[in-house]
Amino acid sequence: MSAPAQTTAIVETEHLSRHFGSLVAVRDVSLSVQRGEIFGVLGPNGAGKSTTIRMLCGILDPTGGRGTVVGYDIARDAEKIKQRIGYMTQRFSLYEDLSVIENLRFYAGIYGVAWKKRKARVDAVLSSSGLEQRKDQLAGTLSGGWKQRVALACATIHEPPLLFLDEPTAGVDPVSRRDFWEQIHAIASQGTTVLLTTHYMDEAERCHRLSFIFRGTLLDVGTPDEIVARRHLQVAELEVERATDAAALLRTRPEVEEVAHYGHTLRVAVRGGADPERIVREVLEGGGVAVDSLRRSRVTVEDAFVAMVRAEAEAA
Question: Which residues make Cβ contacts (< 8 Å) with residue 286, sequence separation at least 6?
């Protein structure tokens, strides 16, 4: 029986890949997740995020490369890994004809929580998740946000050192998403490492570190600030009467990375550290388009990701 490797990284992969016949879902992914951090794996639908997670959980065998999770090899020790992690997806299966507390008791048993500790653990999770008032309600009658809370409680009932969340907020309303993230940070503050996938770029801002996957390839890894800084983007927002004409004119400049409409506002991202306000004024004054207002704006992780994806597509 393989012994757990001693390392500061709770997840580590080297050149991990997975093929489905001729389809390459994941190619050459090398990353390291440190204990105690919230690590995001981001990318569009079909990018290879979920396939990567399933390999790390021991659900899928890698086609190539290697990896360790909680000190165990993902190819040789899949069952040991499954006993030591929590796993939740957007399709996490609650038993809808059982109450909230019955679901928690069931998963406590599945995850091997000792009988003597089970009641105390269920009570603690009910309290920390805000589910005490709903503990006797049938899971099938809960709203999406409350089902999500129960699913997260079930996935952490055994206090795993590592929690995998695969697209956990897909289809959930914005208020429930914010509440969910508060729970994630509370869990992480108690020592649990969280590795999650999402295609919501605003959620990236809430992670300690991120990795970006596109077409199965790892594009970048770092903190949100590091990833944004490496793109060398600057952004300005403006309001104009003829927004469509203004956008078309701005897209003719080679420095302009993107022009996006937000209601009556245009958001202009420029590459290479160029001054977006100067470029906007030059282009629109030359084109006879009056600018009502113009201001600098913060560069976001979404701006960085869009720039990376477009650069990768152009290179391909």
Answer: none
Same-domain check for residues 255 and 172: no
Three-class SS of residue 198? strand
Predicted confidence at residue 264, as pLDDT, reads 83
Q: What is the pLDDT of residues 102-120, one digit of tens each?
A: 999 999 999 989 999 999 9
Residues 217 and 242 in one domain: no
Residues 260 and 171 in one domain: no
Q: Is residue 35 part of a domain?
A: yes
Query: Are residues 118 and 86 part of one domain?
Result: yes
Task: Find out whether 286 and 215 touch, Cβ atoms under 8 Å.
Answer: no
3-state helix, strand, coil in the chain (%, to 5): 40, 30, 30
Q: How many domains does the chain have?
A: 2
pLDDT in tens, 8-55: 799 999 999 999 999 999 999 999 999 999 999 998 888 899 899 999
For residue 217, count other CB atoms closer than 10 A to its CB: 17
Cα–Cα dist 19/2, whole Å = 26
Owning domain of residue 79:
9-227
Cα gap 240→14, rounded to integer Å? 50
Q: Is residue 1 scored above 50 in pLDDT?
A: no
Within-domain flag for 304: no
Q: What is the dihedral of CA 302, 265, 234, 214, to 10 degrees?
A: 20
CA–CA gap between residue 142 and residue 296 (Å, rounded): 43
Reference 56, options 70, 40, 45, 43; nearest CA is 70
Q: How far is CA 46 from the centre of its chain?
A: 14
Predicted TM-score of the model (pTM)? 0.89
Pair 214, 245 in one domain: no
**Tokens matching residue 207:** 């992670």
